[in-house]
Automatic annotation (TrEMBL):
Catalytic activity of the protein: beta-D-fructose 1,6-bisphosphate + H2O = beta-D-fructose 6-phosphate + phosphate
Ligand binding (Mg(2+) 1): E64, D83, L85
GO BP of this protein: fructose 1,6-bisphosphate metabolic process; fructose 6-phosphate metabolic process; fructose metabolic process; gluconeogenesis; sucrose biosynthetic process
Chief location category: cytoplasm
Subunit structure: Homotetramer.
Stated family: Belongs to the FBPase class 1 family.
EC number assigned by the record: 3.1.3.11
SUPFAM superfamilies attached to this UniProt entry: Carbohydrate phosphatase
Protein's name according to its UniProt entry: Fructose-1,6-bisphosphatase class 1
UniProt keyword annotation of Magnesium present: yes
MF (Gene Ontology): fructose 1,6-bisphosphate 1-phosphatase activity; magnesium ion binding
Keywords: Carbohydrate metabolism, Cytoplasm, Hydrolase, Magnesium, Metal-binding
Pathway(s) the chain acts in: Carbohydrate biosynthesis
Length: 277
């Protein structure tokens, strides 16, 4: 695990440099989900692949930008599923974007997650590392990630980060979102899940949701490398998650590498509201 964290630190610094000075135009290709790729999506994927390939304990990697699993060392333990650049459609407007890593031991199964890491490329370079606890690190002037604090969610927050095409929301979802606003919650949503979930986590609570809609019947966000790593982090931070049906997003079975799901992450109070109305 330590080796993986060190590799992600190097990856974060490299991608951060790329974001500052790289070409942010589109490539001519699209990925498995059908998203048009930026040159930055492809280069970030290469940076991560090259770093992770050097580790002897990595069995395989799965990337948003790769069609299928890439085997590395068949006898090794860890499978890393990652989103190289999350929120990449926002790099043109200079919003904070991120990278997400799910660390699975043995098999690609939600209950095999042993850790998750995400990086936020904002005005500062920050990294949240979760194994048993959830810890915030920040890059200092000497290019070292320094521990800042442990992160914990309160039982209830004030932020409502709400995604998905609103005209396609179900009546029950619409009513739940409205009930939170009626209770005084404030809208916060940038369109990069790393930044939006980072805000909810650092402000101590609230709700992030991306429901099923007719244009995205299984939601938009990808299970293996977006949803499960954050579900792991939120639950370890004392929060809760659901897909609207199951008690936890960690109950989802991964059947396809690019599978999507509706998803809700938050503190306990808001997730209870999602489940019970
Ligand atoms: P990516 O840039 O990796 O494709 O992910 C974008 C995702 C996620 O970050 C965000 O929460 C969601 O797409 C935003 O979608 P909408 O624009 O539909 O709100
Ligand atoms: Mn993403
Ligand atoms: Mn991405």
């Amino acid at each position: 695990m330590k080796e993986i964290i060190k590799a992600v630190e190097k990856i974060a610094i490299e991608i951060s440099e790329l974001l500052k000075y790289g070409d942010f135009s589109y490539a001519k290709s699209s990925n498995s989900t059908g998203d048009t790729q930026l040159k930055l999506d492809i280069l970030s994927d290469e940076i991560i692949e090259n770093r992770l390939k050097k580790l002897s304990n990595i069995k395989a990697i799965i990337s948003e930008e790769k069609e299928s699993i890439l085997e590395i060392n068949s006898n090794a333990d860890y499978i890393i599923a990652y989103d190289p650049l999350d929120g990449s459609s926002l790099v043109d407007v200079n919003f904070a974007v991120g990278s997400i890593f799910g660390i699975y031991k043995g098999s690609l199964d939600a209950r095999s997650l042993v850790g998750a890491i995400y990086v936020v490329y904002g005005p500062r370079l920050e990294m949240v590392v979760c194994d048993d606890s959830v810890r915030l690190f920040r890059l200092n002037r000497d290019n070292e990630f320094k521990f800042i604090k442990n992160l914990e969610l309160k039982d209830r927050g004030k932020i409502n980060a709400t995604g998905g095409t609103q005209k396609g929301w179900s009546d029950s979802h619409r009513a739940m979102i409205k009930s939170l606003f009626d209770d005084g919650y404030r809208l916060r949503y940038s369109g990069a899940m790393v930044s939006d979930l980072h805000q909810v986590l650092l402000k101590g609570g609230g709700l992030f949701s991306y429901p099923a809609t007719p244009d995205a019947p299984n939601g938009k966000l990808r299970v293996a490398f977006e949803v499960l790593p954050f579900a792991y982090i939120y639950e370890k931070a004392g929060g809760a998650t659901t897909d609207g049906v199951n008690d936890s997003l960690l109950d989802i079975k991964i059947e396809k590498t690019h599978q999507t799901t509706p998803c809700y992450f938050g503190s306990k109070f808001e997730i209870d509201r999602v489940k019970n109305g």
